[in-house]
Amino acid sequence: MNALYIMQKLARSFLTVLLIVTTVFVVLRLSGDPAVYVLGLDADAAAIEAFRDQWGLNRPIWQQYLQFLANAVQGDFGYSYFEERGAMEAVLERLPKTLLLMGVTGVLTLLIGIPAGIYAALHHNSWIDRFTMLVSVAGFSLPNFVLGIFLILLFSVTWQLLPSSGSGTWQHLVMPVLTMTVAEAAIFARFTRSAMLEVLHQPYMRTARAKGLRWHQAVRRHALPNAAIPLITLVGFFVGTLVAGGVVTESLFAWPGLGRLLVSSVANRDLAVVQIIVMLIACSMVFTNLLIDLMYGWLDPRVGSLRTGD
Amino acid sequence: MQALLETRDLHVAFALEQSRAPVVRGVDFSIGRGEIVGLVGESGSGKSVTCMAAMGLLDEHAHLSGEVRWDGKPLSVQDDVCMSRLRGRELAMIFQDPMSALNPVQTIGKQLFEAIRLHSADRPGRRELAARAIALLRDVGVPAPEQRLKAYPHQLSGGLCQRVVIAMMLAGNPRLLIADEPTTALDVTVQAQIIELLRTIRDSRGMSIILVTHDLGVVAQTCDRVLVMYCGRVVESGPVATVFDSPRHPYTQGLLASLPRLDSQDRSLKPIPGLVPQPHQIGDGCAFAPRCPNAAGGCYSDSPPPQYGEQDQLFSCFYPISVQSSRATR
């Protein structure tokens, strides 16, 4: 684990983000004319031409791209045609709502999924193990939009206990969080269980007990820390699925976060807003994975020594 | 002299889908103080399972019956609390593959400290722990022990890892060490060193050792007594010299005859014909009967009881080899 290794990783991360942003930039501009979306199909040709001219949309795409990069470097991320204000401002306003949803979901997922997986592994082949796995298969096979609609039907329409859309109170949070947590916790439970089972059957567990550790001591000191290593990888994917799940769930429950903003901005060809959200998502994914890579080297000495050529 | 470890009619069966597979079928043996006992037999004869049962390390799928006695007192081997007090400080065990017997993500030092802390009444500080760990590593012949404490298992060779595991097991100064094929995964030259180390430990600490092995040569050089197991039973036991000089059970004779010999004119190997039967295939009779040159009708229906030969030699066979003809063929 040396400075050169970290520098390489950072450079690669930066390139990844740049590649994603570029792809999105090109695809968005080739797939529809924002002037038509913003002004409407029946707007007159002069107005559309004026709009294009104002935002530089009639210039060649490479010029637009370079302009975009130059502006971005100076902290100017463009203007939202639709909200008629700075795009960054529009995005930052929604960010806390999404972070709240992701944070609560993330914490709940780990608090439910990991202990359930550990418990199932420690009681391997018991009825409680089978039951946990049955629930977990059901949990991640169920698409979140189906589960979400089902919850709305039950809690909002039939029992009228919870609001079906919007945000503001903790009641608004319950269904979106539940919708996302079910699938995520199910995946974590399954993965934790298999990681634990793998570790529990390792010869070093037998050694640990042969030298005098009680079963639960050996589990705490040797099985849990070792099973946590592969789990770290899953946390990396988790950030990605949280974002993806967030887009659907936020739309479903009209949760005023980034996911919903992304969907509406794509539909409206609000280029600058889409650009920023995609960049944020890319950065968070790349950053998490960078962190995981570094943690891996620190947690598992075999990986660390391979990389530094020790 | 009272035995240290004794089993009486020990049975172990593993639960299968519908039935149970009897893996250990009535094992009686006793291990005296300070003696090295070899436990030999083909794979699947129940050697390891017998040892794991005595350590209380079998999982919940194993059904145990019979008695294990430690120091004259019955031992509840399926009670984890009770056994964890004995493991490490009365009886300890080392295993076949030393590389995977150590936790790969913890340093040698951390794993040694854990063992030392478990077995010391006082609460030794870091410096004291390091000193004791280094002393243990030195006892088992690890070169430059100070530098090894910070090393991870993958940075050591197999032989060194096995020495570290032995050091860990010595932390509680146990009276019995069970070595389950401790050299099978190691190079031949390293094998000899580890066996030599075990003998040194026995001599310096007066420890008893059960040495599970395939290697009859090692048994001949190292052990005081030998137990020959076949299909979950001890078929012959006794002082190594007696048993190897004049085996009475046809299986023991077969094992010895299947060794290549340099001093004989006839260099061809003489394997025992047939295969070890699966646990569920064993009937009421002698399990070796289908492969035995001496087997007759009774062998297939009744199980032969153990009988004494010369000098504590014990064997279970209806048609044992006579002492004269046994000596003549060796």
UniProtKB/TrEMBL annotation, chain A:
Residues in ABC transmembrane type-1 domain copies: 95-292
Protein topology in the membrane: Multi-pass membrane protein
Any Pfam family the entry gives: BPD_transp_1_N
Top-level taxon: Bacteria
PROSITE patterns (alphabetical): ABC_TM1
GO CC, alphabetical: plasma membrane
GO molecular function, one term: dipeptide transmembrane transporter activity
Keyword Membrane among record annotations: yes
Location in or out of the cell: Cell membrane
Transmembrane parts of this sequence: 12-31, 99-122, 134-161, 173-191, 227-253, 273-292
Main location per the UniProt record: membrane
Keywords: Cell membrane, Membrane, Transmembrane, Transmembrane helix, Transport
Cytoplasm in keyword set: no
Family of the protein in this entry: Belongs to the binding-protein-dependent transport system permease family. OppBC subfamily.
Full protein name: ABC transporter permease
Native source species: Marinobacterium nitratireducens
Automatic annotation (TrEMBL), chain B:
Cellular compartments annotated: Cell inner membrane
Keywords from the UniProt entry: ATP-binding, Cell membrane, Membrane, Nucleotide-binding, Transport
Lipid bilayer topology: Peripheral membrane protein
EC assignment: 7.4.2.9
Keyword Zinc-finger part of the UniProt annotation: no
Any one Gene Ontology cellular component term annotated for this protein: plasma membrane
Transmembrane spans: none
GO molecular function: ATP binding; ATP hydrolysis activity
Domain ABC transporter: 5-256
Catalyzed reaction equations: a dipeptide(out) + ATP + H2O = a dipeptide(in) + ADP + phosphate + H(+)
InterPro entries the UniProt entry points to: AAA+_ATPase (IPR003593), ABC_Ni/Peptide_Import (IPR050388), ABC_transporter-like_ATP-bd (IPR003439), Oligopep_ABC_C (IPR013563), P-loop_NTPase (IPR027417)
Any GO BP annotation: transmembrane transport
PANTHER family noted in UniProt: DIPEPTIDE TRANSPORT ATP-BINDING PROTEIN DPPD, OLIGOPEPTIDE TRANSPORT ATP-BINDING PROTEIN APPD
UniProt family annotation: Belongs to the ABC transporter superfamily.
Listed name of the protein: ABC-type dipeptide transporter
Naturally occurring in which organism (per UniProt): Marinobacterium nitratireducens
